Amino acid sequence: xxxxxxxxxxxxxxxxxxxxxxxxxxxxxxxxxxxxxxxxxxxxxxxxxxxxxxxxxxxxxxxxxxxxxxxxxxxxxxxxxxxxxxxxxxxxxxxxxxxxxxxxxxxxxxxxxxxxxxxxxxxxxxxxxxxxxxxxxxxxxxxxxxxxxxxxxxxxxxxxxxxxxxxxxxxxxxxxxxxxxxxxxxxxxxxxxxxxxxxxxxxxxxxxxxxxxxxxxxxxxxxxxxxxxxxxxxxxxxxxxxxxxxxxxxxxxxxxxxxxxxxxxxxxxxxxxxxxxxxxxxxxxxxxxxxxxxxxxxxxxxxxxxxxxxxxxxxxx
Length: 317
Ligand SMILES: Nc1ncnc2c1ncn2[C@@H]1O[C@H](COP(=O)(O)OP(=O)(O)OP(=O)(O)O)[C@@H](O)[C@H]1O
Ligand SMILES: Cc1ncc(C[n+]2csc(CCOP(=O)(O)O)c2C)c(N)n1
Ligand SMILES: [Mg+2]
Description:
CATH architecture of the largest domain: Alpha-Beta Complex
Strand order of the largest sheet: 8-10-7-11-9-12-13
Bound molecules: adenosine-5'-triphosphate, thiamin phosphate, magnesium ion
Shape: globular
Radius of gyration: 20 Å
CATH superfamily of the largest domain: PurM-like C-terminal domain
Distance between the termini: 47 Å
Pfam families: AIRS, AIRS_C
CATH class of the largest domain: Alpha Beta
Keywords: ATP-binding, Kinase, Magnesium, Metal-binding, Nucleotide-binding, Thiamine biosynthesis, Transferase
Number of helices: 9
Function: Catalyzes the ATP-dependent phosphorylation of thiamine-monophosphate (TMP) to form thiamine-pyrophosphate (TPP), the active form of vitamin B1.
Enzyme class: transferase
Largest sheet: 7 strands, mixed
InterPro entries: PurM-like_C_dom, PurM-like_C_sf, PurM-like_N, PurM-like_N_sf, ThiL-like
Number of domains: 2
Order of helices and strands: HEEEHEHEEEHHHEHEHEHEEE
């Protein structure tokens, strides 16, 4: 029997079993997807690439890679408070392994249904390194998107959950990339804070999702807003306690996909109520915003901490 063509694979894996989009005029099968925008909405768009050996282990199972790739991409919509509209998938495969692709597609379908995000189209090519690019888009009420540039002095800094679990389990995952359990879930299936992000639209001023590391990503808000973020190290929920030898890695390791956001002090009670509504186990106030040269200052019992590496960087490693 001949090997399946690119077109057969695409049809088998990507044309059915995904959530339906009610604003979709034309989906998989043409040169572009066509979407009808609702009145008074803005479109949030973002793209995220994951490369084998860089973002996930080369020999990780397809369904886990798919879950991780889609969740990490959709997290950018959560960080803006957007409601998912759909995603495009660009897949570069190093061989025509049908079993891998079927497994990848089963993970993708499951995750797309869990997050409620339709697959709008994509592109499939051959390349030396397995590479997955996910372009996501979502709707935002006009002018309300949670940007990085709107933190103001006097506001609180908040964090949705614990940081560090994914970074600390990476060594174990590299030893056994097939491990799919409670401990590896923060890495393969990071929680995407879509409903909480959306609830924050009327409460938070700025937000970012933590992909590179808490401190490095906090710096993006500080720089974009022109403020100082003062963080209280002992108030930051971490997967190991501050006495643990790997505690600092929790603040810089990344792969967390928690939301870091700022909000006026007057919103404290409403934020706590929304966190309960969204079923968050943690939503902690971890610092405050001050006027001054953009910076992130982390203090532990009054002592200023410094970090040689504040987060993940692709170059200069
Ligand atoms: N190659 C590129 N071309 C155009 N814009 C880019 C490119 N790479 C990054 N950007 C833009 O730079 C900005 C900052 O990127 P950054 O990587 O911090 O965002 P992010 O997508 O939230 O991060 P992550 O990739 O870690 O999830 C984003 O607005 C992004 O669109
Ligand atoms: C196998 C393996 N080794 C290392 C890491 C750590 N890592 C890679 S990219 C990144 C930041 C987010 O990427 P981007 O900024 O490109 O979205 C982090 C924390 C990993 N996830 N898997
Ligand atoms: Mg982001």
